[in-house]
Amino acid sequence: MANQNTLLPLYQKLWLKHTFSRAMDSLIFLLLLILLSYRVYSISHYSFPWFLATLCESWFTLTWLTTISTKWTPARTTTHLDRLFLRVGELPQVDVFVTTADPVLEPPIITINTVLSLLALDYPANKLACYVSDDGCSPLTFYALVEATKFAKLWVPFCKKYNVQVRAPFRYFSEDATVDKNTDLQEFEQEWSLMKKEYEQLCRKIQNASQKSNPCPLVGEYAVFSKTELKNHPSIIKVIWENKEGLRDGVPHLIYISREKRPQHPHHYKAGAMNVLTRVSALMTNAPYILNVDCDMYVNNPKIAQHALCIFLDSKGEKEVAFVQCPQRFYDTVKDDAYGNQLVALPMYIGGGFAGLQGIIYAGTNCFHRRKVIYGLSPDYDIQNMKKDFGFINGTKSQKKTMQIFGASRGFVESAKHALEEMTFTPNDKLFKSLELKAANQVASCDYEYSTAWGKQVGWLYGSTSEDVLTGLVMHTKGWRSEVCSPDPMAFMGCSPQDNLGQMGQHKRWSSGLFDIFLSSHCPIFGTLFGKLQFRECLAYVWITNWALRSVPEICYALLPAYCIITNSSFLPNKEPGMWIPTSVFVMYNVATLLEHLISGLSARTWWNNQRMGRITTMTSCFFGFLDIVLKRLRISDTVFEITKKDQPSSNDENVGRFIFNKSPIFVPGTAILLIQLTALVISWWRWQQSLLKNERTYGLGEVFCSAYLVLCYLPLLKGLFAKGKYGIPLSTICKAMVLAFLFVQLCNASVAN
Ligand SMILES: O=c1ccn([C@@H]2O[C@H](COP(=O)(O)OP(=O)(O)O[C@H]3O[C@H](CO)[C@@H](O)[C@H](O)[C@H]3O)[C@@H](O)[C@H]2O)c(=O)[nH]1
Ligand SMILES: [Mn+2]
């Protein structure tokens, strides 16, 4: 019996059949090929727009090929929790990392809800430790965590006693409470009311504190914050709560870390913060598994750690899987996904596709890692070679090597050695009491990483604002796989941007970070040529890392119809049968994407919003992402990680879903494209009137349709031209866009004159 249990897999991979989606995608691909052949065949049509269209369409065809390859063999996993306990006697330790960076953009109340939901995980409390990194160095965040810990002592037992599902209090109390059948209702109601009262008090305290310049006098515990500046302060490490007795049902350890920052030292944003968390936790609990969440991602399925461990501890997963990624889902989302940022259909088709290849990308949050993989281990390591590679063989020469990799902390090197050999090792059994915080301060200092492998081969990798995808890609290049874990209920829930500004900033950061990866030495193509990145996984990475680059052909293609109308030329075949080819590509593409949305349970409106936002963001945010990287490569300016605002949605606002504008240059190209299409439409209408008078036949219907379609996509901007206040596009932006549009029309006219 025991034998059989060890043989049964802890998780299974199910291959999905998206036959319909496959058929549609292939058909579109075929049509694109026909279109290209038609273009080549009718070379006699050669003209500038015809040539440019051929170039753009070749690009679209290539992109479509990578899309199909990514989506072709989707998979998902199911985990067998019941078998986990038969397999392992005791659950392993898990260190949880939460990052926060700005108490204004990321209100502490959101962060503490995430932390509370993590402390209340359905997991032995003596096997958990929660580390919070605060890049904002904010006494308010610290204060909120201290107060939250007091509440956690009531909250954690309450959640466990009544088997609460949503363990983030702000969500729990916003819904009607449900209880198991056997619960003593009276007792429950009493405790529930008490808990609600306590939570409201906690909120009030934090609210009051946030209104003062300092949450409390900066003395005692808080004295360390008295002489700090945002980017100039020593490291602050505080053990807020220690589960001293190692109680299984207690509250897990909670540690606050604000790493050292100095003006001259680059801090590498989130990746830098994660590396400090890795090192400090190595000195304290050194758990073999790490869960990483952003400050807004609360636990929605308290058993998620066990589910992830099913994958890690499975006999196959144990050897192959580097990380387990849970999907990102959002709560209180804007109706019908007006800003196209809920990412529901995309992860289902593209994410599912990745999962059926070498594995899903690492998406930065809701992800479980193995510590040894973070330290740079490859899947088929040989223990002796590994020791040599990391310099763990006695002798001064090898000691130097270890330091070159991991830095000069002896304590850390010792713990890393054990982590790599997968031996349980807690550097300090009496944990924090006897722990020398000095050692922790050393590894959190800003110069610790100089001339080490941190950020290059070890830990979260530097050099891209999409540090997550980069770090995951390098693991895949080493030959590791990854898995998606999406049990029911959904593992985590978070905030998505509540307006188009947040959404556009996020897309700009992602697209630039991803394109940065494509141009770096970690480019997925090299990964396949020289590493162990599988070919189709490489294509999938090429698909995702090229996001910013896609803006260029897309903008060209969007300008083509206007160019043709203005210059009275054409880029589309305007006679039968040729004209049917692009028409059917357009129709098929829309039908296919619409059906994908409907099958995913989304509304037709959501589909349209996603299409529309796809066009807008590619030509605005992604284009700026592209420019950012061009400037970075030319060493003119560096990219920065702009934090997304996490706000609790304003309910019942009638303006929800409306676009808001500011003076950001990001709106200039979009407005210019819109003005150009409008100009073209006016010209074509005028010409049409003329031709009616002369009784001539007009061509160029295709071009007019394309222009009109773009105006429809850009409707939010069109409304912005006429609205006032934050809903209106600023006059300066309109003027700049008008200049661009004017130049474009001049260019068109000049090209005709030649
Ligand atoms: O200097 C910094 C900047 C950011 N963060 C943290 O990084 C996380 C992600 O930032 P956010 O503004 O929420 O970005 P998103 O676009 O929502 O994040 C996604 O994309 C990022 C990469 O662009 C990943 O780092 C994230 O994990 C992933 O959820 C947050 O917890 C921040 O507190 C830091 O700790 N230090
Ligand atoms: Mn986020």
From TrEMBL:
Chain positions recorded as Mn(2+) binding sites: K270, D294
Recorded superkingdom: Eukaryota
Subcellular localization: Endomembrane system
Entry-linked Gene3D superfamilies: Spore Coat Polysaccharide Biosynthesis Protein SpsA, Chain A
Binding sites annotated in the UniProt record for UDP-alpha-D-glucose: E106, D135
Record-annotated active site: D135, D468
Key words of the record: Cell wall biogenesis/degradation, Glycosyltransferase, Membrane, Transferase, Transmembrane, Transmembrane helix
Pfam families recorded: Cellulose_synt (PF03552)
Transmembrane stretches, start-end: 666-686, 698-717, 729-748
GO biological process: cell wall organization; cellulose biosynthetic process; plant-type primary cell wall biogenesis
One Gene Ontology term, aspect cellular component: endomembrane system
Annotated GO MF terms: cellulose synthase (UDP-forming) activity; cellulose synthase activity
tRNA processing found in the keyword field: no
Primary localisation category: membrane
Membrane topology: Multi-pass membrane protein
Xref: PANTHER family: X-BOX TRANSCRIPTION FACTOR-RELATED
Protein's name in the database: Cellulose synthase-like protein H1
Phylogenetic lineage: Eukaryota, Viridiplantae, Streptophyta, Embryophyta, Tracheophyta
Primary gene name: LOC100779739
